[in-house]
Amino acid sequence: MDLTTSYLGLKLKNPLMPGASPMAHTLDRVRRLEDAGAAAVVMHSLFEEQITNDQIAEFSHTEMAAESFSEATSYFPHMEDYALGPDRYLNHISKLKEAVDIPVIGSLNGVSMGGWTDHAKLIQEAGADALELNVYYVATDPDEPGVAVEKRTLDILESVKESIDIPIAVKLSPFFSSPGHFAKQLDAVGAAGVIMFNRFYQPDIDIEELEATHRLDLSNSTELRLRLRWAAILHGNIKGDIAISGGVHTVDDVVKAIMCGASAVQVVSALLKYGPAHIGSMVSALKHWLEDHEYDSVDQMRGSMSLEHAPDRSVFERANYLKVLQLWEV
Ligand SMILES: Cc1cc2nc3c(=O)[nH]c(=O)nc-3n(C[C@H](O)[C@H](O)[C@H](O)COP(=O)(O)O)c2cc1C
Questions:
Q1: Distance CA 50, CA 39 (A)
Q2: Residue 27: burial class (beta carbons within 10 Å; 0-12, 13-18, 19+)
Q3: Mean pLDDT of all residues belonging to the chain
Q4: How far apart are CA 51 and CA 53, in angstroms?
Q5: Which atom of ligand 1 is nearest to 195's Cα?
Q6: Which of 8, 87, 106, 226 is the most interior residue, by most CB within 10 Å?
Q7: What's the rounded Cα separation, in Å, for the pair 140 and 201?
Q8: What is the pLDDT of residue 57?
């Protein structure tokens, strides 16, 4: 069975990899992921705020913070919450490259135009095989139009692209008015792929203490559907590859992701829950699933349920909304 896939110009032994997360924090765990069958590893992000350290103190005064809502700053992680500073981050990439044979993908995470993007070059020099660019932006300013958010992201990509040769994948938010059009624009600027999607960690409210509280709930498979829909819509419409991140817990989820057009499938919550060996179980279950269903390769299956190829494309469109609402009976 041919499980190989091409992702961001990298030839991978299968489509499965741990997504950006603490899974790559220790060399030992990354070795265990590689032994289990992970085809690549994505580092957690190096954040703009870590690089431009001095901006942290002034964060509440910047345009990015909601000035009218001072509690917004409590959503912002403290420096000590970040695992690795910029130097240690780069060092860790070099160490990972020595420790494992699978491709190592760095991740740079920021929202404004500025010097922090120079770290893309340092990540490349540290040995990363590719870079994820994550522009995790919360548009708190009601006067800022969506087109400005898109333009800034494209500008950031362009500036990073100018400084490095390794492929760049952009980790997208699902909250663009027209995610497909935006992905095409990223394509045009030279993104080698898109990762769908960022999970937005919503703060909760402590009603007794009148505080906004941080919450991180792990995902479940229902979150995959948003990704499946957009992968299916984008497949065949962009030059770059599609990776799915969010809600992949079982081999069925992996099969669905590939059928909708994914070249790579990232897993985080399930690995945090079940440990590195879970990726191995999914790789071997994928192999068996393909054999049982008489496929020769992962490539043969890719995109078979995309909007272009699905037997009933209406399930990805407005018609699905009407249909599911009518299914509910009281
Ligand atoms: C503890 C934790 C840390 C994460 N850190 C990062 C990060 O540094 N950069 C990033 O782009 N995504 C990060 N993510 C998001 C994951 O890469 C992934 O997109 C998200 O968890 C959805 O995938 P899942 O449903 O498999 O968990 C993190 C997720 C978790 C749970």
A1: 29
A2: middle
A3: 90
A4: 5
A5: 19
A6: 106
A7: 15
A8: 40
The residues lining ligand 1, judged by C-beta closer than 6 Å to any ligand atom, are 19-22, 44-45, 107, 109, 134, 171, 199, 216, 219, 223, 245-248, 267-269, 272
Closest CA to 23 of 78, 104, 80: 104
Residues with Cβ within 8 Å of 224's Cβ and at least 6 positions away in sequence, in order, are 244, 246, 247, 248, 253, 256, 257
pLDDT tens by residue, 162-192: 999 999 999 999 999 999 999 999 999 999 9
Q: What is the 21 CA–ligand 1 centroid distance (Å)? A: 5
Which residues, other chains included, contact 45 with Cβ-Cβ below 8 Å and sequence gap of 6+?
Answer: 20, 107, 108, 109, 132, 134
Cα–Cα distance list, 74 to 59, 60, 174 (Å): 11, 10, 24
- Residue 198's pLDDT is 94
Q: How far is the CA of 173 from the centre of ligand 1 (A)?
A: 13
What is the Å distance from ligand 1's center to 96 Cα? 19
SS3 98: helix
Which spans in the chain are helix H? 27-36, 48-51, 86-99, 119-125, 146-163, 179-189, 224-234, 251-259, 269-274, 277-292, 298-301, 318-327
Name the nearest CA neighbour of 139 among 203, 211, 64: 64
Q: Domains along the chain? A: 5-303 (3.20.20.70)
Measured in angstroms, how far is the CA atom of residue 234 from the centroid of ligand 1? 22
